[in-house]
Amino acid sequence: AVTVIVELTIQSITEISEFSSSFKADVWFSQIWRDPRLDFTDRNYCIKNISLAAHKLPQLWSPNVEIHSSPSQNILLLIFPNGTVWLNFRVSLIGPCKLDLTYFPMDRQSCNLVFESYSFNSAEVRIVWRDWEPVSIPDPDSKNLPDFELVQFIHRNATLVYTAGLWDQLEVEFTFRRLYGYYVLQVRNTSDNFVEKVDMLLTIVVKKT
């Protein structure tokens, strides 16, 4: 089986929607594997790698690892002398969230991203996380949203049983904590307005009587 090394870099998380139970993020998603047919070490080229345009990708074999719910992407494609292929996507995506509003506005919400090969089971392609820092967020400010803060993210892998065989699956789970200060202020302002309106109403009633 071909081993595909996966790495994910979160550029920004822009929104969490309670209405659609989803979150939006911009990510870099890398896949690295070796294809012996692309080895050009014996050609004596004075180059360290070959950079190809995105439209060349359909002409190469690829493991076809997809992110669930990824609508748009930009592609970087490199081939190294020993036949190693580095395929990097810049993706703007929408991922699912498991919303539980029981403790709103002091709640925590969980969202996730799932990676699978669309075309190959684990007998043909093994999908693994990169050994060092498989998931990263270089910019600390990317963890902060207007009303949420990213407090934790963990990665895991599993092998699932489908009709066509065993399939590797990678997952990243993000945990967000709601910044409840805004909601407390809103409740306080609403309470103050309510008291003022009651005082005005009582004054009017007293004057009329």
From TrEMBL:
Transmembrane as UniProt keyword: no
Pfam families named in the record: Neur_chan_LBD
Gene Ontology CC terms: membrane
Superkingdom of origin organism: Eukaryota
Residue stretches making up the Neurotransmitter-gated ion-channel ligand-binding domain: 2-179
Keyword list, A-Z: Ion channel, Ion transport, Membrane, Transport
GO molecular function: extracellular ligand-gated monoatomic ion channel activity; transmembrane signaling receptor activity
UniProt membrane topology term: Multi-pass membrane protein
Keyword flag Membrane: yes
Primary localization: membrane
Subcellular location: Membrane
InterPro entries hit by this protein: Neur_chan_lig-bd (IPR006202), Neur_chan_lig-bd_sf (IPR036734), Neur_channel (IPR006201), Neurotransmitter_ion_chnl_CS (IPR018000)
Family: Belongs to the ligand-gated ion channel (TC 1.A.9) family.
Protein name: Neurotransmitter-gated ion-channel ligand binding domain protein
Organism from which the protein derives: Dictyocaulus viviparus (Bovine lungworm)
